[in-house]
Specification:
It is built from seven helices and no strands. The protein is mostly helical and 168 residues long.
Length: 168
């Protein structure tokens, strides 16, 4: 994606749009940063283009670094090295902080997913408890159904009795 002075060239083609950041995300970020200002559409498009170009630049540099090290997967180290190499070393501290936050959230998710294992109850006991709950639910449904049936029968009997009185 290239930057041209013509506003019409800021709007990406369909192929380029597939490689762009979501407009909704950019709009949300703009609103968070400058909530009291209205930002023109062409400015939003320019910001979108700049963000996309920045990501392409960093990822291309990280890809080169990864290739030079004979690695097949770009990792955080390659991104950080790419930021430094391209002159964005001011961003590395923030990037490291975000990386650490992501790692902590991932670890928290893993711990929470292991809660079943940490209950101290065997699978057989959990299955037995589940079957018991299912049986209780069935009994409750049957009781409610019987009460409804009894109510309907009572209504029918009352209607027959009241309609029978009118015939005499």
């Amino acid at each position: 994606m290239s930057f041209v002075d013509n506003d019409e060239d800021l709007c990406p083609s369909i192929e380029e749009e597939e490689l762009c950041l979501p407009r909704a995300s950019i709009n949300k970020i703009i609103k968070e940063i400058v909530p009291a200002l209205r930002v023109a559409t062409n400015c939003r498009e320019l910001i979108l283009s700049c963000c996309t170009e920045f990501i392409h630049l960093i990822s291309s540099e990280a890809n080169e670094i990864c290739s030079k090290k004979n690695k097949k997967t770009i990792n955080a180290e390659h991104i950080l090295e790419g930021l430094n190499k391209l002159g964005f070393s001011d961003f590395t501290r923030d990037a490291l902080n975000i990386l650490n936050e992501c790692k902590m959230q991932a670890a928290k998710r893993r711990r929470e997913s292991n809660r079943l294992e940490n209950l101290g109850i065997s699978e057989e006991e959990l299955f037995r408890q589940q079957q018991e709950l299912i049986q209780q639910a069935r009994e409750q449904i049957n009781t409610e159904f019987q009460q409804q049936q009894y109510g309907l029968q009572t209504q029918i009997i009352e209607q027959k009795e009241s309609s029978g009185d009118d015939d005499y």
